[in-house]
Design a protein that fits this description.
single chain, 362 residues, alpha/beta, 10-stranded mixed sheet, two-stranded antiparallel ribbon, 12 helices, 40% helix, 21% strand, globular
Length: 362
């Protein structure tokens, strides 16, 4: 199979971590008889420096015309003083809008080799943490009307949350389809005891469930979900929720894994062309020092194979290689435990090379 991937190396450590991910993709393609070609795209601070624009139209066009997009990271202190509409992050917002990606999918997975890094009790962690939060990305209160008026001599602020049936249905389908590719369990999170938006959300999700009889659908109020994520995360497989709730819950979920450098993410829309990136930032303070952790980006590439290219065996191959390297005790600085006698500290390029050496078709 032939696929063209738009590659945004970005700023800070972005070029380093993306470089390692591309090596892993190339080796995986070789093992499984695929052909991946790459189209370089400038976005973020590097695009501001080169083009005077965080995402020039021709660069966006390359992304939209690709089969999927792999992103390292954008931004940094260097561009803090540019006008607000020209900040590196604006390029990312324009990219999401231009690609029409309305679903952000963030795994919360604790690797058994890194279990001690979780802030949760060992008895909780030992049950396993491996779920995905599917967050609606371009609707809800973040995209509603925002205004502040004067009333009776004081300021009154209003932020409007709005969702249509079609917006709920399209994110709901992503949730159901994601669950189908995992353990066929979907938890729909809302606040239907208070909000009309959530009552409509619940209604649409249950209507959708009739089309997915193989997926078990449950409902959970968002405040309960926040508690359950730290009390018993093993109960979850896929969580689907609206924008603000997803923003909060996905940050909570990333923290219980104890290793932000390990977490990939994807943003998807109505086509298979998705945006894949690690959740961490550009870390300009360590750029060029060969000490960044490339695993989050490598796992983002695996997500691309699984969810955009329908290549589950290839994704498993990459994830198994990562697990094997961790089994052998290799760690980058950010996941190196305090008691390091049984571990071997490696840099970005060496970690990439180790994962590459463990890729094996089974």
């Amino acid at each position: 199979m032939k696929k063209n991937i738009a590659v945004i190396r970005g700023d800070g450590i972005g070029p380093e971590i993306v470089g390692e991910a591309l090596k892993v993709l190339d080796k995986t393609a070789e093992l499984f008889g695929h052909s991946f070609s790459y189209t370089d795209v400038d976005m973020g601070g590097c695009a501001i420096d080169k083009w005077g624009d965080p995402l020039p139209e021709e660069m966006l066009k390359k992304c939209v015309e690709s089969d999927s997009v792999l992103l390292g990271a954008v931004g940094g202190d260097k561009w803090n003083n540019v006008p607000g509409n020209m900040r590196p992050e604006k390029g990312l917002l324009r990219l999401r809008a231009g690609m029409g990606v309305y679903s952000n999918n963030r795994p919360a997975k604790i690797w058994s080799q890194l279990a001690s890094a979780s802030p949760l009790k060992k008895s909780i962690v030992d049950k396993g943490i491996d779920f995905i939060i599917v967050r609606e990305l371009i609707g809800g209160v973040y995209f509603g009307e925002h205004k502040t008026d004067e009333k009776d001599g004081e300021k009154v602020a209003v932020d409007t949350m709005s969702y249509s049936e079609s917006e709920i249905e399209r994110i709901g389908r992503i949730g159901f389809e994601t669950a189908r590719k995992r353990n066929k369990k979907l938890c729909s999170v809302e606040k239907s005891n208070v909000l009309d938006c959530s009552r409509l959300w619940k209604k649409v999700m249950h209507e959708l469930a009739e089309e997915y009889p193989d997926v078990e659908l449950t409902d959970m109020l968002v405040d309960n979900c926040a508690m359950q994520i730290v009390k018993n995360p093993a109960q979850f497989d896929v969580i689907v929720t609206e924008n603000m709730f997803g923003d909060i819950l996905s940050d909570e979920a990333s923290m219980i894994t104890g290793s932000i450098g390990m977490i990939p993410s994807s943003s998807l829309g109505s086509t298979s062309c998705g945006l894949y990136e690690p959740i961490h930032g550009s870390a300009p303070d360590i750029a060029g020092m060969d000490i960044a952790n490339p695993i989050g980006t490598i796992l983002s590439a695996a997500m691309m194979l699984r969810y955009s290219f329908d290549m589950p065996a290839e994704a498993d191959c990459i994830e198994n290689a990562v697990s094997a390297v961790l089994d052998e005790g290799y760690r980058t600085a950010d996941i190196m435990p305090a008691e390091a006698a049984d571990y071997k500290k490696v840099g970005c390029s060496e970690m990439g090379a180790l994962i590459l050496s463990h890729l094996e078709r089974k």
